[in-house]
């Protein structure tokens, strides 16, 4: 396709399962994906560019993540929940009772172990470990045939260094690493919308 001088050089088909209005979609591991997204105020701080020429722009980090769905499905559900740090049924954190409860990454069992395990995905990606910084996440499932299905992970943030910090923690300890493989990545700047009668990016070159 070609429009206003732009040419599509690559595409990847993705999909989401049907969900009730306002419900969080599930990934191919069967868990809700995208629960802890920032609200409007938080997005103004962490996602959209600051006042000035970059205001309303953002940075997109894209990852294509192959998922070993068979190996993950072979785990008992309670083990799956320990890997994720959330319950499979309602998406609530292991320290909460509802999906949107804030995970308490410091809560412990009587024996001193963490209720949300030290290697759980939810713990290692927690904003509490990153000064409260949040990214806006959009995930889409993909299925390119046996042995190649997984998640198209899109994350929007003001500062891509935030993603690097989170990914370093995940790469070091995330229990999910046994079941996933990152096969493609990209970083792109998303321009602010054009004003009426204007052109995309015009404010960056004024």
Please provide a written account of the structure.
- The protein has 206 residues and is of the alpha+beta class.
- The protein has one domain (26-192): 2-Layer Sandwich (Alpha-Beta Plaits).
- The chain has five helices and six strands, in the order ββαβαααββαβ.
- It has helices at residues 40-46, 69-73, 77-84, 121-124, 161-173; strands at 2-3, 6-7, 58-67, 136-143, 149-157, 180-190.
- A hairpin with a 2-residue loop joins β1 (2-3) and β2.
- The longest helix has 13 residues, at 161-173.
- It starts with a strand and ends in a 16-residue tail after the last strand.
Brief account:
The protein is of the alpha+beta class and 206 residues long. It has helices spanning 40-46, 69-73, 77-84, 121-124, 161-173, and strands spanning 2-3, 6-7, 58-67, 136-143, 149-157, 180-190.
Considering the chains and any ligands shown, give keywords for the structure.
5 helices; Alpha-Beta Plaits; four-stranded antiparallel beta sheet; 18% helix; two-stranded antiparallel ribbon; alpha+beta; 206 residues; 6 strands
Topology diagram in text:
Layout lengths: L1 E2 L2 E2 L32 H7 L11 E10 L1 H5 L3 H8 L36 H4 L11 E8 L5 E9 L3 H13 L6 E11 L16
Antiparallel strand pairs: 1-2, 3-5, 3-6, 4-5
CATH class: Alpha Beta
Please trace the helix and strand order, writing H or E for each element: EEHEHHHEEHE
Kindly, what is the distance between the CA atoms of the first and last residues, rounded to a whole number of angstroms? 29 Å
Q: What is the CA-based Rg, rounded?
A: 19 Å
Structural category: alpha+beta
Fold-level CATH name? Alpha-Beta Plaits
